[in-house]
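User: I'm writing a tutorial on reading structure tokens. Could you give me a worked example: one chain, its sequence, then its tokens, then a sentence or two explaining what the tokens reveal?
Assistant: Sure. Here is the example chain.
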Amino acid sequence: MKILIIHTRYQMFGGEDIVVDQELNLLKQHHTVEVIYFQNHLGWRGAMQFLGSIWNVSSARKVRKKIKEFKPDLVHIHNWHFALGPLVFRKISQLKIPVVHTIHNYRLLCPSGILLNKGQLFNHSLYQRFPYTAIFKKVYRSSFFQTFWLSFIIWFHKKIGTWSKIEKYLCLTSFAVELFQKSNFNVPVEKFAVKPNFVMTDKTKLEVKRGNHFLFVGRLSDEKGVKVLIDAFRNSSYELKIAGDGILKQLVVDASLDNKNICYLGSIQNKEVRLELKKAQALIFSSIWYEGMPMTIIEAFSCRTPVIASNLGAMSSMVSNNLNGFHFEQGNAEDLIKTLQSFDKLSQEVRKEIQNNAYQTYKEKYSVNSQLSYFNDIYMSIINKRNEVK
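And here are its predicted structure tokens:
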């Protein structure tokens, strides 16, 4: 199968970029794959890209030329915002090539991209024909104009039918599919499929003895529920290790100085993250927004580490209560403590069973082996459907 991957890299290399590179490397082992990268810029160049993204003829022309040369069976687009632009979907459709789009965030539903504003869930845009509330609240980069322009781009392409040109939308979780169906996006459910992210396990079989502590790994920011985390563990008897960096770093540092049961590890690399996951009783995932698909949860499962997570969004889809982890009420420090108390009462046999369930979840849904079947099933169903129409 000949596949063309297209992705717009962010100004700072991040999670989506890592996912794209992983998928690209996997697909190249089994198919003929080529890739086109676009790059978002800062300053006046970035402003021009943003303004022109509504109808980016230059980017669309570049993609058209590549398709003419490569002649792919299918085009898979990840991030189109903003150096690529939505026009490319229309141009690919005109060439009679099926196009797939992975949805890594909620930008098509709301200019915020994360359905969170000032620390609170923000769902207004899901049900409004045009996201006026989001614009007035300046949910994108705290800018009235930028929020309006991004909203207008998505609305305009919805009006002219661009989003209907996409053959299949790949969502990371079933929750994301449900959100799109509840919203006014108006694309039939048949056009959606769930294709989760995955992680590579290390090949070393290093046995690590688990400690009695819990672990948080992630960005130290409001949306990750760091304040909830600190409130729960402060003055408790449970030990917590925190790894990461962000705007709330000083809050974490102060909490570690004032509470002997809280230890700040600083920012650590992936290899160290896996080691810490293997040492911990469970990963605490306290995020207060819906998330896309947290890679840290997948990493935890691959290390046989249960996850105690907010009962919200992607976390509710990934973590099965009392099976591979536990839920607690989003933003509720007291409920998190109650969940920790319940976990503490579990026998070693039950804990071992939950650890094995976590690893089984990884193998079935988020391992390299499972991913290839996801791709092949989705890609071939699209190509076969096109061939039947011909």
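What the tokens reveal: The domain at 214-366 is CATH 3.40.50.2000 (Rossmann fold). The chain has two domains: 2-198+368-389, 214-366.
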